[in-house]
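Annotated sample (chain length 78).
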Amino acid sequence: MFCATFGGTVVTKTESGLGCGHEWPLCQGKFVPAHTIASLIEYSHRLVSGLAGLTAVIAVLCFWFFAKNVEICEYILS
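Output written by the structure step:
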């Protein structure tokens, strides 16, 4: 999450927010961004933020699954 926040700060300070245009998840209509500094900064921020979000969702699902199994194990053992 620190990297996503730091990347957002870099995007804001370098004014690279529209480096990929208004298209999402594409960048200038392509999966691979054009070789400009603004598009590379924006696209890398998108990748890091997306990975942080997916990691958070996976962690919540894993904890939910683990908690559910702990309750079942406690019921069986008691």
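Annotation: The longest helix spans residues 37-77.
Annotation: The chain has a mean pLDDT of 77.
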